[in-house]
Amino acid sequence: MLVTPAIQKEIQRRRTFAIISHPDAGKTTLTEKLLYHGGVIHETGEVKGKSGSKAVTSDWMELERQKGISITSSVMTFDYHDLRVNLLDTPGHKDFSEDTYRVLMAVDSACMLIDVAKGVEERTKKLYEVCRYRKIPIFTFINKLDREGKDPLALIDEVEKTLGMQCYPVTWPLGIGNRFRGIYNRITKEIMLYDQRREDVGDVTVIPFDPETQMHLLEDYLDTHSAQQVKDELELIEGALPPFDLAAFLSGEISPVTFGSAKQNFGVDIFLNFFSKYAPGPQPRETRDDKSVDPLSATFTGFVFKIQANMDRRHRDRIAFMRICSGKFERGMKVQHARLGRELRLAYSNQFVAADRETVDEAYAGDIVGVNDTGNFAIGDCVASHGTVLFEEIPKFAPELFAKLSVRDALKRIKMQEAVKHIAEEGAIQIIIDPLIGSQDPILGAVGELQFEVLVHRLRDEYGLEVTLNRLPYSVARWPRTKDGKSVSELKGSFQMFRDSNDQPVLLLNQEWDLNWAKRENPEVEFHTSITRAR
Ligand SMILES: Nc1nc2c(ncn2[C@@H]2O[C@H](COP(=O)(O)OP(=O)(O)OP(=O)(O)O)[C@@H](O)[C@H]2O)c(=O)[nH]1
Ligand SMILES: [Mg+2]
Fold first, then answer.
1. What's the whole-model pTM score?
2. Of the residues 263, 265, 271, 450, which should be mutated to test ligand 1's pocket, given the most ligand atoms within 8 Å of the CB?
3. How does pLDDT run along the chain (535 residues), one tens digit per residue?
4. For residue 55, which ligand has an atom nearest its CA?
5. Which of 19, 27, 29, 142 gets mutated to test ligand 1 (max ligand atoms within 8 A of its CB)?
6. Rounded to the nearest whole angstrom, what is the distance from the C-alpha of residue 20 to the centroid of ligand 2?
7. 289 C-alpha to center of ligand 1: Å?
């Protein structure tokens, strides 16, 4: 059964997307400018701003502000014309990439940022591969045009060759760095003139421009060399490019490219307008039994892709971020929780702009709602208003760094254990227990160094705990399983077994070499890099 036409209309106006890239390309800066255009904020804070300037909205966590990098993904909802946009700003640093990968499970499209001077960087490449694998359509935004960088044609060529994806330039830059004079919008056949001194973002001079007959106009705005270069470039792309192929975009084969400067809020509105015209609405979701859930289905379904503790520290809250996959969400509704196998009432639900929240009474497929949680939800959990639904599993990375924590004030040990458990539920660190020692002194596993740094900082900042981290020599974690998926708690070859937070046996080893040995000794056992949270 499908939803009513009114609900259908709501679902179809949802656009949910993530901004992804290598660190520092300008994702958070672009996010801010998009929020500005969406009317959510009226003044944009400078990233890594000087003291006194307004802090960035989507980097709301204390440590993000100190370091000037994004540590955790952040959800922002705003209206733009007829659309309800759910935007997810993701961290670029590889130590937080698990968070970014999870976000990519929850979106229908992505905007990939490229720094004009740096081109396609390593993390961007990895994230692109995830999008490609999941067939997520990708917009490309080439950022920092106000700085010197690569020639646009060379960049397009680099994107096409390194990523193996075709580009469709929607706009074209007129000059770069000191010679940056504006952007030509190929769709509307207009030039937007760039003036760094302009007071208001709306203060942009727009002139109609037809490259077929008006190339001479370029000389009015650009120096002779740049004018000639742009002429040559435009002749080339106008002659060689077929019209925009929407189907090829939606299947992830071609990417529309816009140029701009997020910092100067230039070219951002062109991207947003193009996005609102072509970004796909909520897409069907695959389930574990190879079925597909139609977003317009009358049954409400959703899954949790992110958990965040202490967004509101005073209340020590815990928010489970849920992507709605089908139907309509109503606050207070009862849902079937697949992992727990029981009914649950979703009593408190919020919609977010970074850390600011508003109670939400209704939401629709495509939306992301933050449900206040008292411990019922784990990442990957699925809910449905009727029956049981299990969506694809969310990948979990094997930790590669291990440590133990000690707290200076011995009386605060219990408090520390609770705090660590709280933060571990977000999925950034994993708790592993040595059965001989017990749960009072756990081993912590992380994928990257920065996660440990964040943990120590948050324990101090959010819980008032001064802790010391003592690194352990392990570097490999594997979950031993039989061929038919049952856990194995004893291995041949005198290996010590640990237990994870779901009480599953896990093997910790110092190096890959030890793993090879374990495999040789136990040929009938499979050594998994991760297991699902669901028991
Ligand atoms: N000149 C110039 N600087 C920019 C532009 N966009 C962003 N920046 C600067 O680049 C730096 C990084 O910007 P962020 O927005 O924090 O980058 P990010 O991609 O969110 O970084 P992570 O979240 O840590 O991966 C900041 O100093 C910004 O001010 C731009 O268009 N021009
Ligand atoms: Mg950022």
1. 0.92
2. 263
3. 999 999 999 999 999 999 999 999 999 999 999 999 988 877 655 433 333 445 557 888 888 888 889 999 999 999 999 999 999 999 999 999 999 999 999 999 999 999 999 999 999 999 999 999 889 999 999 999 999 999 999 999 999 999 999 999 999 999 999 999 999 999 999 999 988 776 666 678 899 999 888 988 898 888 999 999 999 999 999 888 888 999 999 999 999 999 999 999 999 999 999 999 999 999 999 999 999 999 999 999 999 999 999 988 888 889 999 999 999 999 999 999 999 999 999 989 988 888 888 899 999 999 999 999 999 999 999 999 999 999 998 878 889 999 999 888 888 999 999 999 989 999 889 999 999 988 888 999 999 999 999 999 999 999 999 999 999 999 999 999 999 889 999 999 989 899 998 899 999 999 999 999 999 999 999 999 876 543 3
4. 1
5. 29
6. 9
7. 42
Q: Which protein residues are within 6 Å of ligand 1, measured from CB?
A: 21, 23-29, 47-48, 69-70, 91-93, 143-144, 146-147, 261-264
Query: How does strand 190-193 pair with strand 182-185?
Result: antiparallel
Interaxial angle between packed helices 27-37 and 268-278, expressed in degrees from 0 to 180 and rounded to the nearest 10 = 80
Ligand 1, atom nearest to 31 Cα: 15
Nearest CA residue ID for atom 32, ligand 1: 144
Task: Answer for the pair 186, 169: CB distance below 8 angstroms, yes or no.
Answer: yes
| d(C-alpha 493, C-alpha 523), whole Å | 12
CATH number for domain 285-384, candidates 2.40.30.10, 2.70.70.10, 1.20.58.60, 3.40.630.10 = 2.40.30.10
Calculate the CA 27 to chain-centre distance.
10
CA distances from 349 to 326, 368, 373, 413, 529 (A): 17, 10, 9, 33, 34
- Tell me how far apart the alpha carbons of residues 192 and 182 are, in angstroms, rounded to a whole number: 5
Residues near ligand 2 ion, CB 5 Å cutoff: 27-28, 70
CATH number, domain 17-63+92-278: 3.40.50.300
Alpha helices by DSSP H, listed for 38-143, are: 62-67, 97-104, 122-133
Helix (H) or strand (E) holding 119: none
How big is the chain, counted in residues?
Answer: 535
> Domain limits of the chain?
17-63+92-278, 285-384, 395-532
CATH of domain 395-532: 3.30.70.3280
Query: Of the ligands numbered here, which is closest to the C-alpha atom of 69?
Result: 1
Ligand nearest to the CA of 30: 1
Q: Whose CA is closest to atom 12 on ligand 1?
A: 24
- Minimum-distance ligand 1 atom for the alpha carbon of 91: 23
